[in-house]
């Protein structure tokens, strides 16, 4: 039998390697394909960790058509106030006009302004060792804070921190988010979700896990006013305190809970079909409400809500692979609503220099803008010219 030799070619490194036959290449390719198909089959057969609810979101408002949603550049000229807080979720002011905002690392910053209104260097006021979101001063000069990890806090002028509430009805306050304070000292605040954190899985599930709570400073008791909210977020009282608003981010709406009158103790929809995820709510001197829109509508999210099967599949994926699916669109947006819930005007940055807007707060002729992780960094402001 004649001797046979395997032909070889010289590699770039000078090492002779056997040349693979086309048959072996085909076998290897088919084997890899079989492994891949087997992995896909196993992935599809694994039960989803959620049972998604079907929901057909209304068609988003158009930014191209004439009307209050029409796109403009009102936020595009935003001026940086301070970049000390990377993610200034909420913005408030003390009686002297100094700005306060928290950051996701637990620090709360204070920014003073000079006689010409120019911001000075930010200073650390306190550190909750958590994640301070909402913050408003009470009548005694204490900074009341809703901290995602710590609950409802009170910080006195010297920076000492007291926990007001971290439980309600014997259960934890899972994710204290935003707040407002009534003239009698009552604190209304949101408990965003019993998931205890922001997670894509909750968006996919599309079920209500949030609550609106009330803290009574006299009795030091916390009560539940509303349950079954779709990611309870921003909170704001009306000028007459006859109702309190809470944002339901995942259903693009603001819900109104009546505190006075014939509807006391009931709730209804104040504004719906917003052009994105409403975040925080503030009230200006006219009694109008300003709402930060964290992201404009994401078509994939609406598509997923229409298809529970798709939502269930997506929920199986690791969270690290899903961050891009719910990342804020690079389109800055804040809106102004009148006391009846009608849209007055929308403020845009379509270029996305400023985006991921959580807060729009009117003060001393400016609209101050806060953001959250995933969006722009630092506190910004624009002149309130219309």
Describe the structure.
Helix content is 12%, strand content 39%. With 386 residues, the chain is mainly β. The protein has one domain: Neuraminidase (6 Propeller). Strands 3-28-27-26 form a four-stranded antiparallel beta sheet, with no helix packed on it. A four-stranded antiparallel beta sheet has the order 4-5-6-7, with no helix packed on it. The N and C termini lie far apart (95 Å). It comes from Paenibacillus plantarum.
Quick description:
The chain has 386 residues and is mainly beta.
- Count every beta strand, where a strand is a DSSP E run of 2 or more residues: 28
Our measurement of the CA-to-CA distance between the termini, rounded to an integer number of angstroms, reads: 95 Å
CATH class: Mainly Beta
Major sheet strand order: 3-28-27-26
Mean pLDDT: 92
Family: Belongs to the strictosidine synthase family.
Protein name: SMP-30/gluconolactonase/LRE family protein
InterPro entries: 6-blade_b-propeller_TolB-like, Strictosidine_synth_cons-reg
Keywords: Glycoprotein, Membrane, Phosphoprotein, Transmembrane, Transmembrane helix
SSE topology sketch:
Layout (H helix, E strand, L loop, with lengths): L7 E3 L5 E3 L3 H24 L33 E4 L8 E3 L5 E4 L4 E5 L11 E5 L4 E6 L5 E5 L3 E5 L5 E5 L1 E2 L2 E2 L3 E6 L5 E5 L8 H6 L4 E7 L4 E9 L2 E6 L5 E6 L4 E6 L8 E5 L4 E8 L5 E8 L2 H8 L1 H7 L17 E6 L5 E7 L7 E7 L2 E6 L7 E5 L3
């Amino acid at each position: 039998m004649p001797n046979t030799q395997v032909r070889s070619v010289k590699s770039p490194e000078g090492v002779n390697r056997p040349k693979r036959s086309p048959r072996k290449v085909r076998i290897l390719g088919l084997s890899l394909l079989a492994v891949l198909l087997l992995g896909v089959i196993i992935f599809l057969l694994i039960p989803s960790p959620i049972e998604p609810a079907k929901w057909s979101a209304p068609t988003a408002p158009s930014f191209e058509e004439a009307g209050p949603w029409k796109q403009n550049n009102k936020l595009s000229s935003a001026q940086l106030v301070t970049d000390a807080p990377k993610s200034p979720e909420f913005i408030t002011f003390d009686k002297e006009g100094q700005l306060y905002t928290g950051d996701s690392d637990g620090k709360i910053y204070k920014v003073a302004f000079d006689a010409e209104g120019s911001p000075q260097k930010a200073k650390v006021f306190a550190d909750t060792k958590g994640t301070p979101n909402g913050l408003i001063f009470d009548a005694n000069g204490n900074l009341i804070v809703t901290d995602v990890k710590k609950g409802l806090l009170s910080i006195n002028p010297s920076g000492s921190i007291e926990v007001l509430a971290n439980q309600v009805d014997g259960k934890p306050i899972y994710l204290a988010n935003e707040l407002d304070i009534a003239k009698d000292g009552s604190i209304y605040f949101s408990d965003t979700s019993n998931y205890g954190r922001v997670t894509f899985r909750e968006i996919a599930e599309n079920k209500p896990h949030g609550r609106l709570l009330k803290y009574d400073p006299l009795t030091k008791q916390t009560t539940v006013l509303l349950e079954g909210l779709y990611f309870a977020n921003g909170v704001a009282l009306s000028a007459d305190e006859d109702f309190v608003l809470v944002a339901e981010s995942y259903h693009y709406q603001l819900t109104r809970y009546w505190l006075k009158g014939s509807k006391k103790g009931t709730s209804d929809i104040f504004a719906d079909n917003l052009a994105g995820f409403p975040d925080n709510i503030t009230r200006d001197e006219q009694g109008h409400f300003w709402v930060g829109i964290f992201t404009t509508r994401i078509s994939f999210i609406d598509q997923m809500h229409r298809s529970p099967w798709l939502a269930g599949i997506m929920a199986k994926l690791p969270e690290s692979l899903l961050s891009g699916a719910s990342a804020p669109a690079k389109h800055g947006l804040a809106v102004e609503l009148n006391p009846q819930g009608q849209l007055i005007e929308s403020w845009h940055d379509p270029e996305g220099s400023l985006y991921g807007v959580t807060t729009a707060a009117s003060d001393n002729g400016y609209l101050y803008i806060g953001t959250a992780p995933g969006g722009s960094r630092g506190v910004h402001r624009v002149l309130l010219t219309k």
